[in-house]
């Protein structure tokens, strides 16, 4: 159990994505990072909130994700909002191109983590929620919470 725990370490989660989107499929991808970006990620300094994945040609790019500059990195420090190449198999990218072209689908970063000392990102194929979908999800969560309270009271 301790070995499994040491191989996976979560850095950042995009909880806003689950509120704004229906996540239909999830994919794991590697990231092409600079040394100071890896050091900053190990310190947990990453923000996925406004991020998205853009596919151009046969490459996938992570856009608008903020990885804070490494405090001890001097001249070699990275730009916080730069584009980062995602490492996916060619077949996965071809499949994603076809799915994203469908109306209403987009690719959103869900989670950044380290798996066996490699930085990975979980991206989701998502459909946007409408306002009434969000209200419905909140009402459902409130109902579950109330039922759990009632069961605890006896």
Task: Give a written overview of the molecule.
The longest helix has 23 residues, at 131-153. The chain has a single domain (2-129), classed as Small Protein B, Chain: A, CATH 2.40.280. The mean pLDDT is 89. It has a 7-stranded antiparallel β-sheet with strand order 1-8-9-2-7-5-4. It has a two-stranded antiparallel sheet with strand order 3-6. A hairpin with a 2-residue loop joins strand 4 (52-56) and strand 5 (59-63). It has 5 helices and 9 strands, in the order αβαβαβββββαββα. The protein has helices at residues 2-7, 15-20, 35-42, 90-100, 131-153; strands at 8-13, 21-31, 46-47, 52-56, 59-63, 66-67, 84-87, 105-115, 118-128. It is of the alpha+beta class and 154 residues long.
Strand content: 35-45%
Binned, the helix content reads 25-40%
Distance between the termini: 35 Å
The total strand number stands at: 9
Q: Going across the major beta sheet, what is the strand order?
A: 1-8-9-2-7-5-4
- CATH C-level label: Mainly Beta
For the record, the count of structural domains works out to 1
Poorly predicted tracts of residues: none
Helix count from the secondary structure assignment: 5
Q: Tell me the Rg in angstroms.
A: 18 Å
Mean pLDDT level: 89
**CATH topology, anyone?**
Small Protein B, Chain: A
What sequence of helices (H) and strands (E) makes up the elements?
HEHEHEEEEEHEEH
What is the makeup of the main sheet?
7 strands, antiparallel
**What's the assembly state of these chains?**
single chain
Protein structure class: alpha+beta
Tell me the CATH architecture: Beta Barrel
Spell out the CATH superfamily: Small protein B
| Envelope shape | globular
